[in-house]
Input
Amino acid sequence: MKANGHPDAYVRPVAFRGSEMMAVSAQHSKIHVAIATWPWPSMFDPATKMKGIRLDIARWRRPSPETIPCHAKAAGLYMICTLSKHEAEHKGFNDAIMWDYRGYVAEATGANVFFVHEGRLHTPTPDCFLDGITRRTAMELARARGIEVVERHIKPEELAGFTECFLTGTAAEITPVASIGTHVFTPGALTRQMLDDFNARVRQKAAAAAA
Output
């Protein structure tokens, strides 16, 4: 970030194989690493962010860990995410939520999801999708305030019982959710607290890095 003159930016490291071999096997291809940074404003209008975004329910599901290395941030894993997000946007939604291969709530197309019920945070167990860095930061911030965080399998029919919902991700940061399909949420005090605490943490680290 210092080298590129970006005090506030998105950082994307990429590891990829070279072109020495043209086959499924790439045993002798060199592995290259590139790191890029670029300015990244909020994915959604800050003035209306607390109103929450609208999520469709994707027809694609997160695959079984027996079929793909699900805990890797790998390009191939994002194909069904792109298809799902494009379809959601064509229908007028901001994004889509995905179930996992068993039918449990998994994640959005590029972000983890949290729900609020009676002052507790509930979030799906990341046993077949990425355990995001921002997800772990949100859990840390919540526990620092004495908020109980419950990691568990969440059934779609449970969505009706949650009062608040938000997404977490390196791009999404903390993004309130207003609806998932026909289920409506009201971004409230707990979501606002998470958003404020996360923003304070990010600004604090950015200031330390600049110094």
User: Anything to note?
Assistant: The longest strand covers residues 10-17. The chain has two domains: 1-40, 49-210.
